[in-house]
Amino acid sequence: MDTTKPKRNLPPLRIALIPVVILIALLFLTIRTFGSDALNGASQVVLLTTAAICAALAVGLGKVPWKEIEEAMCNNILGVALALLILLMIGALSGAWMISGIVPTLIYYGMQILNPSIFLASTCLICAVVSVMTGSSWTTIATIGIALMGIGEAQGFNTGWVAGAIISGAYFGDKISPLSDTTVLASSVTGTPLFTHIRYMLITTVPSMLLTLLIFLIAGLNHDATDASQIAAYAESLKDTFDISLWLLIVPLATGILIARKVPSVVTLFASAALAGVFALIFQPHLLAEIAGSEIADANSLFKGLFITFYGDTQLETGNAALDSLVATRGMGGMMNTVWLIMCAMCFGGAMTASRMLESITSSFLRFMKGRTSLVTSTVVSGITLNICTADQYISIILNGNMFKDIYRQKGFESRLLSRTTEDAVTVTSVLVPWNSCGMTQATILGVPTLIYLPYCFFNLISPLMSILVAAIGYKITKHPVENEKTEDFAAD
Questions:
Q1: DSSP of 2-16, one letter per residue?
Q2: Which of 376, 383, 392, 344 shows the shortest CA–CA distance to 361?
């Protein structure tokens, strides 16, 4: 018996756009109404509502069986299951690194080393180096990123600027590191050798990063530095609250070794959080007792305080209001809204994929491909659209690569052009979409709403434009003759 699914026609573009338009309109209204509290449930309702509208249109007009839509939703959620587990581990790690004194130690010494005038550029560069070595923007932001946020706040920088510098650097590394899963995915989907893909990306990535560093350097030089006495008071409050010790830096060092040895992310994050828990017992027993609500640091209070650090909210009294908010943690429990939101986003992406509405939207870009520049521009716009519609960078990379692969080959362009353009469009912009898994995660980790840091993520904003600019110039872009292809010149527009 033939069990293959029948091939259905693509829904009209005017129908396919209905769920997307409603999604954007409702999210705009939701964010306007609830502000930063939109992630506490309102955005999830919006995503499920638009998923339901999409499914209703597909079943009612497209005759798509509900079973297919349901399967697509489940497959999407299954595809991000590991990311959700990593997210929970990051929650535990961020709590443990803070209460153990690791992050406060990094902040304490960082304030003395990093000059405010070059802080933003230094932050971007540090995160870039760490991310290249780790291959993970998420790990970089959840560890050194949190410490840099604290230093930036102490030096009087706007949180949007600091978060933008952290994210710009972290996603530079995520984009070009051979250890990055998105880098490997983009090269494999398009059939491009990994290091060929990385070398070709440098043409657009390096100029984008240099422009970004220049912007952050200028902004830092024009920054009105916080009064030195205020920074000194900040550092003193840290030292009075935490046992500041260089021995605590053993944990970041051990974490770096695990990453360098390519230990799986979940294992690395769990081991790092556990080790930080041990150091919390050694260096900060008084804080664990305070978290447990006990005046005595006995075995029971230490056990209770440690577990709360991993999974729950912690509030410490430091005598400095700004510092109180910085050292407060939410543990794994603080990630639950993000987990919930990602699952709802996957339901919407599944409904859009099963109904072929997503395919209808992306295929509409093909009609605008009249030259090399328009081909790359269409790929960029398609990648960003997929990030918005699917809410997941991995799905977007796979769909974008598969959709354009034959077109690039038919037009005689190398696969490396497609792999580079896909990364320029998808990997770096995923963090700019509030309901994308990356946008939600980084906003949660840094405590800065996506729309607040978005204008300052210069690397992420410049990269897609740089990809189009290089295509227009035609630098290092070659076109090979293709059999049975018309002799028309497929040159720059």
A1: --PPPPPPPPPHHHH
A2: 383
**Alpha-carbon distances, residue 386 vs 120, 344, 361, 393, 411 (angstroms):** 31, 16, 9, 8, 23
Domain limits, the chain: 13-75+335-473, 82-334
How many whole angstroms separate alpha carbon 4 and alpha carbon 324? 59
Distance set, CA 65 to CA 68, 73, 169 (Å): 6, 13, 45
Tell me if 264 sits within 8 A of 86, measured CB to CB.
no
Rounded Cα distance between 428 and 170, Å, is 10
Report the predicted TM-score, pTM, of the whole model to 2 decimal places: 0.69
Report in angstroms the alpha-carbon separations of 427 from 90, 220, 273, 447.
20, 27, 27, 21
Question: 99 vs 63, 146, 421, 443, CA distance in Å?
Answer: 55, 13, 42, 21
Query: What's the CA gap between 19 and 23, in Å, rounded?
Result: 6
Comparing 146 with 301, the larger pLDDT belongs to: 301
3-state secondary structure of 479: strand
Query: Average pLDDT of 355-371?
Result: 76
Q: Is the dihedral of CA 166, 171, 177, 182 positive or negative?
A: positive
What single string gives the DSSP state of each residue in 21-88?
A: HHHHHHHHHHHHHHGGGGGGTHHHHHHHHHHHHHHHHHHHTS---HHHHHHHHHHHHHHTHHHHHHHH
Of the candidates 233, 266, 308, the residue with the CA atom closest to the CA atom of residue 90: 266
Question: What are the residues whose beta carbons fall under 8 Å from the beta carbon of 218, sequence distance 6 or more?
Answer: none
Q: What is the largest CA-CA distance in the chain?
A: 83
Q: What mean pLDDT do residues 20-38 have?
A: 78
394, 169 contact by CB (below 8 A): no
172-182 residue pLDDT tens: 988 888 767 78
Cα 249 to Cα 49, 272, 468: the distances in Å are 47, 12, 43
- Compute the distance between CA of residue 52 and CA of residue 18 in angstroms, rounded to an integer: 12
